[in-house]
């Protein structure tokens, strides 16, 4: 059995015989509000692993370097070992979630241009919003890296917005994580899935039915697994 090196809320990372390669196991566990709400979503591990695999492969074809190597089982992915930059990089196209609470901009407003936000990955602090000065002070990333993260996040947004809209899904917002290879190269890491994106179904105007992502779990809207399955079916198109 591979040695477990880290267990997060939705994934477990295992070592492999090669120190440059890790194995990610996607769990069915779901958490929200900094793990104050806990549950399980049927087949989520397999669904998210399949969605993330598809999206990483797509982004690679568009020139975005990712940690993805191969899907080795329905809920397992081989990835390049990287040092994770402790920032959650959020891109927003439409006002929702914490952005509404922070800015007072009405929920559902189409933003004039995509907004990039950085949050410090720190559960004890509740992942606070960080300015570039905070990032420099805590030496989480260099100024050049912050510029690169922002550019990569915005180009990923361009590629994914088009990818999802071709599948009748609106990409409202999403969270990315990045890691550094030993060479200093920055790779897109972690996952992209309905756990980490807000996706709205363009094929219905019903505000509850539109929601195809973890907000169904956060807000107890029901049919969470069905929505995730539907996202996978469309991503595969
Ligand atoms: O909660 P908030 O509106 O800041 O979330 C923005 C986006 O980032 C959402 O798509 C949410 O699913 C994602 N996110 C995440 N992991 C977190 C916080 C937010 O995937 N810890």
Helices and strands in order, then pairings?
Blueprint: E1 4-7, E2 11-15, E3 21-26, E4 29-32, E5 37-40, H1 44-61, E6 68-73, E7 76-80, E8 83-84, E9 87-94, H2 97-103, E10 110-120, E11 129-130, H3 132-137, H4 143-165, E12 169-180, E13 186-189, E14 197-201, H5 215-218, H6 224-235
Helix pairs in contact: 1-6
Residues 88, 90, 96-99, 127, 173-175, 196-198, 214 line the site of cytidine-5'-monophosphate.
Tell me what the structure shows:
- The structure is a single chain.
- The chain is of the alpha+beta class.
- It is about 30% helix and about 35% strand.
- It contains 6 helices and 14 strands.
- The chain has helices at about 45-60, 95-105, 130-135, 145-165, 215-220, 225-235; strands at about 5, 10-15, 20-25, 30, 35-40, 70-75, 75-80, 85, 85-95, 110-120, 130, 170-180, 185-190, 195-200.
- Strands 8, 9, 10, 11, 12, 13 and 14 form a 7-stranded antiparallel sheet that branches.
- Helix 1 packs parallel to helix 6 (about 225-235).
- The longest helix has 23 residues, at about 145-165.
- It is globular and about 50 Å long.
- It starts with a strand and ends with a helix.
- Cytidine-5'-monophosphate (C5P) binds near residues 88, 97, 174, 196 and 214.
- Cytidine-5'-monophosphate binds next to strand 9, helix 2, strand 12 and strand 14.
Shape assignment = globular
Small-molecule binders = cytidine-5'-monophosphate
CA(first)-CA(last) distance: 35 Å
What is Rg?
17 Å
How many DSSP E strands?
14
Q: Low-confidence segments, ≥5 residues, pLDDT <50? A: none
Q: What does the largest sheet look like?
A: 7 strands, antiparallel
Helix content: 25-40%
Helix/strand-derived category reads: alpha+beta
Strand content: 25-35%
Query: How would you spell out the order of helices and strands?
Result: EEEEEHEEEEHEEHHEEEHH
